[in-house]
Amino acid sequence: MMIFRKTALAFCFLLLSITCWGTIIKIKDSSYANIPLRIYVYENLLTHNRNLLTTATVNAQGEAEISIPLKESQLVYIPILSFELVFYAEPNATVTLKLPNYQQLKKAFSQLKSYTKQEIPLFTQEEKSLNRAINHYDKDYNKFIKANFKAIYNKKSPKKYREQLTNLRTLYGSTFFKNYTAYKEAYVDYIAGLRNELLPTYYANKKLQLHNTAYVSLLRKLTKELAIDFPRNPRYTKVYKDFLKSKTYNGLKKVYKNLAATNDANFNEHFFIYIMRWALQEKLVPQAIVFKKLQLIAKYSPNRINKKLAKSILKKKQFKGKKAPLFNLKTTDGKTYTNKILTADKPTLIAFFDSASSNSASIKALHGMQSKYKDAFNVIVFSCEKKIEELPKNWRQFTVPYHSYLLSDYRLGRFPYYILITADGKIAKQTWQQYLISLEK
Fold first, then answer.
1. What's the gap between Cα 77 and its chain centre?
2. Are 423 and 344 in contact (CB under 8 A)?
3. Please, where in the chain does CATH 3.40.30.10 lie?
4. Domain with CATH 2.60.40 in the chain
5. 3-state class (DSSP) for residue 277
6. Which of 103, 116, 217, 297 suits 195 as a labelling partner, its CA being 20 to 30 A distant?
């Protein structure tokens, strides 16, 4: 009986924990009727690896009420067409989104015909919300910085300008918002050239923040400059040699202590991880060396946040070699297939065509290649919005709307687009029309 009570109490505690993290997202916009949505957060704001929170479909009246398990205040986004609708949300709160009209988004997309993501900040209806507070703050803050940038840059009392911004802090009372404004104000010191002072004043001996946009933005600026200098500036010659020689976690600790030079070991390591991220992105240090150092942190760091951040960078985001994304769709002849159709006795070439454009030349070139190699590969087509009539009879065709998440799952960039799948269902190559000939290799 006692065991049962303990189990029941534990279950109730878990249920309460889940409930208190619940965030409600409300949508009421008829232009989104029957549109499926995915809601994501970023694993962190340095790597932007995405985590799917939930999926939902707006009803026929354009309404949806979606519960998401949000543990902390952070940036949330909804990808739609070639756009990412971004907003701030916090646990145990309701956010009623003001979405851009879907038909207008579709019109803008039709001019681009590209799935390169562009962010659109959203507004919320609630007067008292983190999202609204940050939107208002940024508007006034950007206006202030633009008007005073030259004076601040000339090092005319950055403290005075920071003090002028303090009245904007009162817009909202959450810890996230207070931290956000603190690092926006710290940017004033950055403009004034007081960069070395920022680390001990604003960053060291404080909570490491993976999801605060102002915190990450400023730290990225500070670490990029050092990442560029680190391998080549004589000032860091000894530290860089120690970095290259370090094969243990303890050896690495000496390196990042010299780089950040604060008395906070956790922050020094955090700072170093940002530098390594820049070293990878800008190809400042060979990838294999960077990965080895990050693997030491991911394995041995006593700090959970730093371990998590290092692991996030180490995640390979390569599309090539992965299993083809899932789907379950009807072809234009009415038969239903899953992605298992890609696992055949020979490779499959997936072609993505925009049915609103002429695809005759692309179809002719692809059919010619298939004939040249005597049907050595299958062809399936994802045609957007409607059926394409002039396809060869042995090609299977699926029609999908522009907003289908299948297009982003398959990393569609722009039309026409091709993905070669090996016989065991793995991604072998991706290319655009002008590089179609490269698939022959």
1. 9
2. yes
3. 328-440
4. 2-126
5. helix
6. 297
Tokens of 316: 């390979």
> Do 275 and 220 contact (CB within 8 A), yes or no?
no
Output the CA–CA distances (angstroms, integers) from residue 4 to 11, 17, 108, 390, in the order listed.
10, 20, 59, 67
**Domain 2-126: top CATH class:** mainly beta
Chain CA centroid to CA 49, Å = 5
CA 306, 307, 310, 312 torsion-angle sign: negative
Q: How many CB atoms are located within 10 Å of the residue 160 CB?
A: 12
List pLDDT tens digits, range 120-178.
999 999 989 999 999 999 999 999 999 999 999 998 788 889 889 988 888 899 999 99
* DSSP collapsed to 3 states, 79-148: EECCEEEEEEECCCCEEEEECCCHHHHHHHHHHHCECCCEEEECEECCCCCHHHHHHHHHHHHHHHHHHH
Token couple for 124: 């919320």
> In whole angstroms, what separates CA 217 from the centre of its chain?
14
User: Could you tell me which residues come within 8 angstroms of residue 214 by beta carbon, excluding any fewer than 6 positions away?
Assistant: 179, 180, 181, 182, 183, 184, 187
Q: Is 311 exposed, middle or buried (0-12, 13-18, 19+ CB in 10 A)?
A: middle
Give the tokens for residue 2.
């006692």
**CATH code of the domain occupying 328-440:** 3.40.30.10
Q: Which residues contact 396 (CB under 8 A, 6 or more apart)?
A: 331, 337, 341, 378, 379, 380, 381
User: Between the CA atoms of 215, 218, 222 and 223, what dihedral angle is there, to the nearest 10 degrees?
Assistant: 60
Neighbours of 94 (CB within 10 A): 15
And the tokens for 25? 């997202």
Rounded to the nearest integer, the mean pLDDT of the chain is 90
Q: Which residue shows structure tokens 């072609």?
A: 351
Question: Can you say whether the dihedral through the CA atoms of 362, 400, 102, 21 is positive or negative?
Answer: negative
